[in-house]
Design brief:
Layout lengths: L1 H28 L11 E7 L2 E7 L3 E2 L5 E9 L5 E5 L6 E6 L5 E5 L8 E5 L4 E8 L2 E6 L2 E7 L3 E9 L3 E3 L3 E4 L6 E5 L1
Parallel strand pairs: 3-15
Antiparallel strand pairs: 1-2, 2-4, 4-9, 5-8, 5-13, 6-7, 6-12, 10-11, 12-15, 13-14
Length: 186
């Protein structure tokens, strides 16, 4: 009876040891990847009375995965403001930059035209969602020849207004841009 009890104890000890080793081995061979947050990733430029915001759903994407980019311009002041856009076309846009800040792609480019005034009530915003299909330009200077698939790597996205703006009673605000959000194409 004592001999068989020693065998049973030894088998249980070996089984526990193998279980611990298996769990340790799986954890070291499989790196932990935290799940990406369900919360959007945002970058905001606040220059009262306006707020320019860039929003992405996440920062890591598979190669070829469409990337939704939302850009908004909001009146955060207490009164209605008149924003003068010195161009015609989309009021907000985004840019894709290389890590060295070279512009690789823009979406929402505008055409210079007559000044267009837009009244924004307190809390009102201009919002636009674009889909970037991970393409970048082949260009020389200001001449764009073609678009190609963006290679895997790290990029920066910034939100911007389409061209210079001014606000009645405040003056020129230039061409505001949000701080960049770094993204990775895997």
């Amino acid at each position: 009876m004592i001999l068989s009890l020693k065998k049973v104890f030894s088998l249980i000890a070996i089984a526990v040891l193998l279980g611990v080793i298996s769990v340790y081995g799986i954890q070291t061979l499989t790196p932990f990847k935290p799940a990406q947050s369900a919360q959007p990733v945002t970058s905001v430029l606040t220059s009262p009375p306006i707020e320019l915001k860039l929003e992405l759903t996440k920062t890591e994407f598979e190669k070829g995965e469409p990337i939704n980019v939302t850009v908004s311009l909001k009146n955060i002041g207490n009164t209605t403001i008149n924003v003068s856009f010195s161009y015609r076309g989309p009021k907000v846009m985004f840019k894709i930059l290389a890590v060295n800040d070279t512009v690789l792609y823009e979406r929402g480019r505008s055409i210079l035209a007559l000044v267009e005034d837009i009244a924004l009530s307190s809390g009102e915003q201009i919002i636009k969602t674009y889909t970037w299909n991970q393409t970048i330009w082949i260009r020389e200077g200001d001449i764009i020849y073609d678009e190609i698939q963006a290679p895997r790597g790290t990029y920066k996205i910034v939100g911007a207004v389409g061209a210079s703006i001014s606000i009645q009673g405040i003056g020129s605000m230039g061409k505001p841009e949000t701080p960049p959000i770094a993204i990775k194409i895997k």
